[in-house]
What we know:
Layout: H1 2-21, E1 42-49, E2 57-63, E3 66-73, E4 77-84, E5 88-94, E6 98-104, E7 110-119, E8 124-131, H2 133-140, E9 144-145
Parallel strand pairs: 1-7, 4-9
Antiparallel strand pairs: 1-4, 2-3, 2-5, 5-6, 7-8
Amino acid sequence: MYLNNFVLYSIIFIAVILTGCAKKIYPNGEDFSEFQKPIKNSSIIYIYTLQERTGHEMIFINEDKKDYLIGDLVSKSYSIAEVEADKEIKIWAETESIESITIDTEAGEIYCIKADIGGGIRIYRPTFEQVDLETCKAEISKTKLVR
């Protein structure tokens, strides 16, 4: 009898753990409504994903050789960063390896980076692609801000 209860409770425990691991993580901010205007001598970078997925990756910006966390890449989400203009900015995330994209910013400009998650050898890894504002506006309107 003791062995049967042990097996039953073990199966229930494993089922609960596996169900929790497969839970999708959603952003907790407001829906995207419009692009913010950059303040003087700055640029704005939007990073977004349209994918529904489990888990998350932290997205960083490297500015002046310093890394800043700007948000988590979760299901149907976007993050925003205001950066100094006329700089080379690296946007990156690390899973199996470091994946990144570098952009040269100009004052008053808005940049959009679409992030996708693809399969790696052991775990998923992000990919980044710079998209034009028209494409970005159509796609980012389906996302929510990550806080």
